[in-house]
């Protein structure tokens, strides 16, 4: 949710942001007029209430015709106060309804355009030249089947398309990835968290997943629960309706959860294997920071993602995602895309979003006191000062390991000619020291 004061002071900036996102610009004017009505009706209500109170004091002192006249006026005023109250409530509700539909303001450096209009910020590593090694790379599904690691046929039999089983070494590989990712995050100071996968509407709405993204979300109508598409949702809502002392910031959590995605609108896309599925597990980094620290934290999240992918020895590029592909909550998003040999292109593996104060305003998460840098302590940080200024903080999220896509990239990039797969060193301690995964299929 954007700051309504900013909207009033600089509506053109909000219009430009909506335009850059390819979204409804008229919404800005509808919101401005609802906000104007909200403010003027609140003033009107306050005036009438003051008049009513003043009149109330005069009545006991009056007598005769004067009293009759005052009582008549009091009756009229009571009706007017009731109407003004209804009008202010209606305008406030309309303002809230409209502001929740508005996306976050885009960062001025974000490239303008759609999915294909990203900017490449950096390329790390070099894709392998399989031709020079004398063999044609197999795709992840063929490798997964040879290793006895992936079973999509039975996934489809039991649950339908875009479902799968990870079996044998595939299951072990997921557990190894998750443990390695949690170990990296913990070493960086993140608190590991196992989060709920079902949340109430407010958590979903607050994180910005019920607007344009709603069609991608599973809803359990009978109980009015949503299945989360990412642990970003329960991690953002973790401090809902709370005030965090500035001295405690940044707060960093590494969530591990199943993620459920309807994948509406992707019919026919990535239908082979486990690249795009309805259910997967993910380790997600989530930070609460002071707004003035948000851009630096965004860079730090990206650096942790790069550390992770570099450790897995995957070639990848970092992109600055274009305005039209940001999603409602992000003001800026950096994706890391790993090279997928059989597709001959880089594909998204991680995504780091700076949501500024957008989610915090919707979820009412605020900070108290001045933030004096991440080294501040409770005694020196000033945040414990009672009566400190209370204001929204900023939230950011970044993927560390989205399991199936990471498995796709690992199998394809580290395959050997006979269908076995080399295990990168960072993962070996989590796989009982195994250096190579061997085919099991006859
Ligand atoms: P997002 O929360 O949409 O930024 O996604 C985080 C990461 O999860 C992406 O970078 C992908 O690696 C992965 N991911 C997203 N959707 C799917 C899906 N349907 N199946 C498998 N992995 C996915």
Automatic annotation (TrEMBL):
<dbReference type="InterPro" id="IPR002314">
    <property type="entry name" value="aa-tRNA-synt_IIb"/>
</dbReference>
<comment type="pathway">
    <text>Aminoacyl-tRNA biosynthesis; selenocysteinyl-tRNA(Sec) biosynthesis; L-seryl-tRNA(Sec) from L-serine and tRNA(Sec): step 1/1.</text>
</comment>
<feature type="domain" description="Aminoacyl-transfer RNA synthetases class-II family profile">
    <location>
        <begin position="139"/>
        <end position="424"/>
    </location>
</feature>
<dbReference type="InterPro" id="IPR045864">
    <property type="entry name" value="aa-tRNA-synth_II/BPL/LPL"/>
</dbReference>
<feature type="binding site">
    <location>
        <begin position="261"/>
        <end position="263"/>
    </location>
    <ligand>
        <name>ATP</name>
    </ligand>
</feature>
<dbReference type="InterPro" id="IPR006195">
    <property type="entry name" value="aa-tRNA-synth_II"/>
</dbReference>
<dbReference type="InterPro" id="IPR033729">
    <property type="entry name" value="SerRS_core"/>
</dbReference>
<protein>
    <recommendedName>
        <fullName>Serine--tRNA ligase</fullName>
        <ecNumber>6.1.1.11</ecNumber>
    </recommendedName>
</protein>
<feature type="binding site">
    <location>
        <position position="399"/>
    </location>
    <ligand>
        <name>L-serine</name>
    </ligand>
</feature>
<dbReference type="Pfam" id="PF02403">
    <property type="entry name" value="Seryl_tRNA_N"/>
</dbReference>
<dbReference type="GO" id="GO:0004828">
    <property type="term" value="F:serine-tRNA ligase activity"/>
</dbReference>
<keyword id="KW-0648">Protein biosynthesis</keyword>
<dbReference type="InterPro" id="IPR015866">
    <property type="entry name" value="Ser-tRNA-synth_1_N"/>
</dbReference>
<keyword id="KW-0436">Ligase</keyword>
<dbReference type="Pfam" id="PF00587">
    <property type="entry name" value="tRNA-synt_2b"/>
</dbReference>
<feature type="binding site">
    <location>
        <position position="284"/>
    </location>
    <ligand>
        <name>L-serine</name>
    </ligand>
</feature>
<keyword id="KW-0067">ATP-binding</keyword>
<dbReference type="InterPro" id="IPR010978">
    <property type="entry name" value="tRNA-bd_arm"/>
</dbReference>
<keyword id="KW-0030">Aminoacyl-tRNA synthetase</keyword>
<comment type="similarity">
    <text>Belongs to the class-II aminoacyl-tRNA synthetase family. Type-1 seryl-tRNA synthetase subfamily.</text>
</comment>
<dbReference type="InterPro" id="IPR042103">
    <property type="entry name" value="SerRS_1_N_sf"/>
</dbReference>
<feature type="binding site">
    <location>
        <begin position="348"/>
        <end position="351"/>
    </location>
    <ligand>
        <name>ATP</name>
    </ligand>
</feature>
<feature type="binding site">
    <location>
        <position position="277"/>
    </location>
    <ligand>
        <name>ATP</name>
    </ligand>
</feature>
<comment type="function">
    <text>Catalyzes the attachment of serine to tRNA(Ser). Is also able to aminoacylate tRNA(Sec) with serine, to form the misacylated tRNA L-seryl-tRNA(Sec), which will be further converted into selenocysteinyl-tRNA(Sec).</text>
</comment>
<feature type="binding site">
    <location>
        <begin position="230"/>
        <end position="232"/>
    </location>
    <ligand>
        <name>L-serine</name>
    </ligand>
</feature>
<comment type="subunit">
    <text>Homodimer. The tRNA molecule binds across the dimer.</text>
</comment>
<keyword id="KW-0963">Cytoplasm</keyword>
<keyword id="KW-0547">Nucleotide-binding</keyword>
<dbReference type="InterPro" id="IPR002317">
    <property type="entry name" value="Ser-tRNA-ligase_type_1"/>
</dbReference>
